[in-house]
Amino acid sequence: MIVNGETRLCGLIGNPVSHTLSPFIHNTLSKRMTINTVYVPFQVEKNELSQAVAGAHALNVLGMNVTVPYKTDVIPYLDAIDPMAKGIGAVNTLVRTQNGYKGYNTDMTGLCRAMQTEGIRLNGEEIIILGAGGAARSVAYMCLYYKVSKIYLLNRTIEKAQNIADELNKEFQREAIIPMHLAEFDKIPTKKYLVIQGTSIGLHPDSEACVIEDPSFYQLAHTGYDLIYRPFKTRFMKLVEEAGGVSFNGLGMLLFQAIDAYELWNHLEISDEVAMETYELLKAETKKA
Ligand code: ATR
């Protein structure tokens, strides 16, 4: 990588940022595409978020990613916001405009693209989502946006699933989300579903944990999609496979949220071939960490 007078800067705002794989993905893409940008992490304190966004613009920074804990807090400091990001209420990508930054949610467009790449359909499908935290709510929004017909939303705390259902059913003007307690899965009509695992259970180092242990639940899954990518094969994924389903981890989502941001910043398209090459490098990198 040669940094010269024409190099443009991109980066990540969050706290902490030391474990991020985003610099690896973006700098790999820039090298592969011979694009003169560098991507660096910025640890930002909560009371300095507005200055960080304004300062990035003043420094002619091309684009920013935003991560925990600022994906919602950053919204007031944006010049514009993409409709899906607005509906989700969280932004992870800032794209430079003349007067500020426009916010996008490429976590969700990236998840959708990762699923498409893996041949998973959403349009017209009935699905199951596990969890009702921030991540699960974003996934539910994205799935309704891409026209799934029904979502069984299962959570330990039923009230949180109920709140999401009330809010999103109203927004999309249809009774698409059915909130349930985790233990009520036996009330779901017996057939095969895409199941998206959106809780934090099973994340390294608690790799042997899973939000539902009962093997009979997994009879409902033709496909299991875990948003977690560390460990590479979660216990949820193993249980899906043991019941005869196919499973995916969240590494594709991580890759494509970066690719979607990269395309927005650089006004280009990353080919499937470059995406796959980058995926393999990323996979090796996650195994190192
Ligand atoms: P995120 O932003 O990653 O979604 P979050 O908003 O804290 O994080 O949500 C965490 C999710 O994991 C929630 O669905 C949570 O269930 P509750 O709403 O009942 O808290 C779920 N979760 C966390 N620990 C859990 C546990 N031990 N058993 C079952 N679900 C759990």
Structure description:
With 289 residues, the chain is α/β, with parallel strands linked by helices. The protein has two domains: 8-104 and 255-288, Leucine Dehydrogenase, chain A, domain 1 (Rossmann fold, 3-Layer(aba) Sandwich); 109-249, NAD(P)-binding Rossmann-like Domain (Rossmann fold, 3-Layer(aba) Sandwich). The protein is 37% helix and 20% strand. The protein has helices at residues 22-33, 49-58, 83-88, 106-117, 134-145, 158-172, 235-242, 251-266, 272-288; strands at 8-14, 37-43, 63-66, 80-81, 93-96, 101-104, 126-130, 150-155, 177-181, 193-197, 221-226, 246-248. Helix 5 (134-145) links the parallel strand 7 (126-130) and strand 8. The longest helix has 17 residues, at 272-288. The protein binds 2'-monophosphoadenosine-5'-diphosphate. 2'-monophosphoadenosine-5'-diphosphate is lined by residues 131-136, 155-157, 160, 199-201, 211.
Q: What is the residue-averaged pLDDT?
A: 97
In what order do the strands lie side by side in the largest sheet? Answer: 2-1-3-5-6-4
Instruction: Provide the succession of SSEs.
Output: EHEHEEHEEHEHEHEEEHEHH
Largest sheet: 6 strands, mixed
From the alpha-carbon coordinates, what is the Rg to the nearest angstrom? Answer: 19 Å
Per CATH, the class of the largest domain reads Alpha Beta
Q: Label the overall shape.
A: globular
CATH fold-level topology of the largest domain? Rossmann fold
- The parts where pLDDT drops under 50 for at least 5 residues are none
Structural class: alpha/beta
How many structurally independent domains?
Answer: 2
CATH superfamily of the largest domain: NAD(P)-binding Rossmann-like Domain
Bound small molecules, deduplicated: 2'-monophosphoadenosine-5'-diphosphate
Q: List how many beta strands DSSP finds.
A: 12
Q: Label the CATH architecture of the largest domain.
A: 3-Layer(aba) Sandwich
Relative strand content: 15-25%
Fraction in helix: 25-40%
> So how many helices?
9
